[in-house]
Design a protein that fits this description.
single chain; mainly beta; Thrombin, subunit H; two-stranded antiparallel sheet; 1 helix
Amino acid sequence: MKNFYTANKGSKISKSFDGPDRRRYPRFDFPFFIRYKKNGEEQSETENNTENIFFVGKDEGLSVSRDVSIGGICFVTKESFSIRTKLTLEIFTPVKSEPFTALTEVAWQKKRTLMPNYLTGISFLKLDDEEGFKRLLNMLTEMELEKLIEK
């Protein structure tokens, strides 16, 4: 059983959750660049520029992942999305020249305190190269474990 803690406004640490981790897949803290767009807002060929990570077209957003699993990703967005909103994501990683693309669904969203943005948790509905993404997460996990062992 894991204990989870948060800091309250008085800077005191308070126990926020005491119970089993109910996540379906383990989460890893890997920062990937993410470009997202609400589904149904189609891109034209001239707007679709996957060669430049930092190109953000109309109605798109750019973020960095907070945590990642094979089931979904948590990242920061400027926009508020309703639960079950469909988003198309491009996930840029250091091991693949083209981004992974995914059709996703907003699972939860939380307004950040003192920040004008939202923590957004999505679940994958369709991932273009699921096996490649699994291999990437396994490789990065092994690298993290090696670092811990070396310390």
